[in-house]
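Help needed: design a sequence for this.
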């Protein structure tokens, strides 16, 4: 994770590719996609390579990045065809992601050594040689005064690394594999990284941590712009993690103007959907885990629950309580939980995610429109592609991809007009962007509903830690708890499509929360919409 928040040549190439694809879409007319052939030469100009051993290899990689940015399938080095082959697929009004979403451009992979103990030049060949003494497999010998590890015998236990007084032994891990909490990345027959798609949950952490830029996800930049150019209104639904993502010149007050400059009809905060999600999850947790009856849930917001009444209500309903409830808003966490702990799938909240709730709200208010979710997350692309979600969210863009659109349209943030967003969410809704924010919002909601209620929570960030959290829950360590999982270490502000350092993003979210008038979901002006949505069955949970 060491690279996160550092602007590198990999980020620069991604931005330029996104900008060129956006420019291509804004300029597109009459079925002419011939300009695609020129883009690799604009991104990688000249005759001398800058990043790799060959300018031809650099352009070949850009071509595949460009195809993925247009939502097209990746090609192998053995395929010979113009980069525009099959590109007419992009022009279709409804173009959903064809799996896989996360792709490795194989000829860009560095074949990094994976899971290997390595003796460095810092080895002093000391007399004590503790590395050899602690090795349980006799894998370490001394040659020419230096420690040497037999990789065939080595079991990668790390004892030698810990024992070395000079810190001369390192454990080399492939960065993408190290970042993958699902252990979904292995090695193909040529020594290149390879993704097991059955294990992958599309969190994008491999993409964000590959120092060679060999991993990329598919995008809908081209399709979004085509929708914007049509007669159909397109609304931008912006995730709470957007705070500060585009630098100090693009203030929250200018966000609406900036997106309208790209052609969006208007802007809606997904934090509004987060408020509705908070209320739904609080209600579900009270009923499903604590055993508070629906009738009590529908009562006063100052309702006190007498001790023991929860279980009595549950018993009267003849319904078994859930041992715990896990939040639902992070699709990678939710998918991981259902893949690895299928017996506890019912313990994942059935509340719709903020993205989907916001999409349904927008389409309820503006029939016939299209909605583009703009956020930090690769996994949201997969969520939006689900058969039962497609009618709610038409496009998903990351902050990186949105920046490409700003570049293509030469949007000057400094000259934009300040204008308020058409509505305001609560501070807790905006806090969904950081780790602990979802559970905190639900707890605050429950505390207002039931002041004497004790709500126990536990949270984890990063899929490795999420797995451990659920393992403990499975063992009964978190009975009665609300569990929050975030696939990205740091929360949504650390998503694969973000543009600034994680700590800085978290601070930006904190600043926005401080100046927000409504503090929790129950103070949101939109909470009254829940009844309307429920009556119209708009809150029905999709079944795929």
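Sure. Designed sequence:
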């Amino acid at each position: 994770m060491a690279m996160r928040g550092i602007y590198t040549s990999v980020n620069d190439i991604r931005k330029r590719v996104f900008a060129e694809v956006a420019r291509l879409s804004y300029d597109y007319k009459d079925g002419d996609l011939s300009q695609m052939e020129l883009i690799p030469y604009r991104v990688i100009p000249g005759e001398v390579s800058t990043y790799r051993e060959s300018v031809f290899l650099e352009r070949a990689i850009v071509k595949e990045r460009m195809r993925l940015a247009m939502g097209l399938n990746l090609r192998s080095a053995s395929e010979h065809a113009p980069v525009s082959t099959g590109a007419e697929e992009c022009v279709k009004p409804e173009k959903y992601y064809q799996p896989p979403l996360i792709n490795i451009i194989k000829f860009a992979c560095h074949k990094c050594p994976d899971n290997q103990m390595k003796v460095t030049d810092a080895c002093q060949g000391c007399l004590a040689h503790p590395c050899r003494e602690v090795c349980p497999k006799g894998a370490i010998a001394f040659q020419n005064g230096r420690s040497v590890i037999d990789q065939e015998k080595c079991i990668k236990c790390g004892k030698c690394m810990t024992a070395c007084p000079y810190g001369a032994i390192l454990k080399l891990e492939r960065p993408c594999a190290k970042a993958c909490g699902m252990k979904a990345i292995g090695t193909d027959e040529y020594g290149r990284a390879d993704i097991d798609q059955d294990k992958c949950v599309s969190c994008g952490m491999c993409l964000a941590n590959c120092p060679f830029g060999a991993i990329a996800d598919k995008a809908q930049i081209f399709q979004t712009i085509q929708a914007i150019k049509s007669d159909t209104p397109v609304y931008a639904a912006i995730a709470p993690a957007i705070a500060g993502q585009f630098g100090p010149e693009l203030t929250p007050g200018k966000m609406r103007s900036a997106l309208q400059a790209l052609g969006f009809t208007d802007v809606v905060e997904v934090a509004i959907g987060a408020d509705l999600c908070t209320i739904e999850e609080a209600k579900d947790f009270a009923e499903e885990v604590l055993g508070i009856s629906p009738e009590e849930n529908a009562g006063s917001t100052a309702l006190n629950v007498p001790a023991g009444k929860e279980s009595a209500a549950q018993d009267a309903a003849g319904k078994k309580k859930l041992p715990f409830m896990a939040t639902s808003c992070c699709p990678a966490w939710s998918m991981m939980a259902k893949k690895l702990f299928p017996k506890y799938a019912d313990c994942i909240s059935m509340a719709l995610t903020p993205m989907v709730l916001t999409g349904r709200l927008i389409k309820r208010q503006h029939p016939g429109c299209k909605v583009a979710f703009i956020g930090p997350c690769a996994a949201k692309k997969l969520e939006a592609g689900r058969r039962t979600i497609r009618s709610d969210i038409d496009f998903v863009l990351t902050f990186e991809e949105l920046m490409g659109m700003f570049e293509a349209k030469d949007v000057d943030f400094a000259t934009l007009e300040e204008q308020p967003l058409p509505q305001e969410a609560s501070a807790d809704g905006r806090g969904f962007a950081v780790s602990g924010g979802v559970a905190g919002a639900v707890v605050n909601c429950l505390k207002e509903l039931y002041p004497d209620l004790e709500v126990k929570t536990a949270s984890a960030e990063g899929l490795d830690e999420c797995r451990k959290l659920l393992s403990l829950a499975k063992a009964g360590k978190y009975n009665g708890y609300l569990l929050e999982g975030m696939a990205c270490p740091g929360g949504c502000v650390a998503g694969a499509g973000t543009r600034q350092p994680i700590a800085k993003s978290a601070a930006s979210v904190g600043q926005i929360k401080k100046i927000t008038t409504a503090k929790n979901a129950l103070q949101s002006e939109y909470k009254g919409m829940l009844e309307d949505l429920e009556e119209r069955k708009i809150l029905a949970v999709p079944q795929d």
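Confidence is low (pLDDT under 50) at residues 299-317.
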